[in-house]
Amino acid sequence: MPPKRRLKMGLLIAAAALLFGYGTAYVASDDVRYLSRAGLEETRILTKRTPISRLATDPKASPTLRAQAKLVLDVRAYATRIGLEAGETYTSYSDVGRDTLLLVLTASPKTCICAVVWSYPVAGKVPYKGFFDFEKARKTVTEYAAKGFDVNLRPSAAFSTLGWFNDPLLSTALTSDTLELAATVFHEIAHNTVWIKGATDFNESFAQWVAYHAAESFFLSRHDTTLAQRAAARWQDEQILGKYYELLVGRLDSLYGLKLPPDQNDSGRAVIARWSRDTLNSGFGPQMRTYSVGRTTERPINNAALIGVRLYRTNLDLFDQWGRNSGALPMAIDRLKRIMAGATGSAAFTRMRNALTPLK
User: Fold this and answer.
1) For the chain, what is the domain count?
2) Region of residue 198 (phi > 0: left; psi between -120 and 50: alpha; otherwise: beta)
3) Deepest in the core among 1, 191, 251, 321, taking most CB within 10 A?
């Protein structure tokens, strides 16, 4: 899987909890209880931070952890060299004391690929909900499923407060896969460099593009051609998956546009699921070099799951073309940053397309 999906919770948590009293409001409101729990978890994370520079040389830490900390430091330094704004991202480390940080819920009607949106003070509207209380997460999934929604509950190794706090690298985000750890750091730092308000699909896809191209360049600078080639292959696989999901979503949109009765809509989804299975097995799957289709082909259509995977693979061909036409990665990033100044929402991709048109 590409760098671990980061839950963008906005200001979430501590700041939001400070705005709300407890007392009767805590008893009466699920939202206040939710934010209070989130605020408590964020406080725990922040109070357990250790500088990564210290961790990298700590004789009490395991050799593996020291090596991972050193890699993060090296990636941060390289990110700065190529024009990314590393800021304070991943300058500290926090052990959360468990394997899973939180569970993330996405829900969607079975008749459109459109996310249920949750609204919170400070954090605003978000198309997902993160739960530190796993029992509450499963209960909420059951409630939405009972109402006829597609639901998707997945673990998340981290979340970002988008600069409101000095987010540490969490123990749940560490991986023994050197490429993916480097790509994760580049991905999050890319968000510091370019972030378009109201354009989650642009932001995440941009960060994916930066993550694997920067990782390739980083490992080449260390004369590690094996990992550099794997980073390049992973980016190619991401584009292949992006094309597959684009076709799948297009077929589903056409089906949902017919406004069929529930039973006929379900039958249409089953037909598209079979097409999806055959297409992955005989078309897109064999093209991929670093991903294995595995049991993906056995899964039924789930609009909620599709919303998540598409966020990170939207218009990847545009970013690939941008990179080819803009020279070295630092130049490509700088040019895109300048063009995106003041952009919001769908204007981001529009500006990108307009800028590419004379270059074709």
Assistant:
1) 1
2) left
3) 191
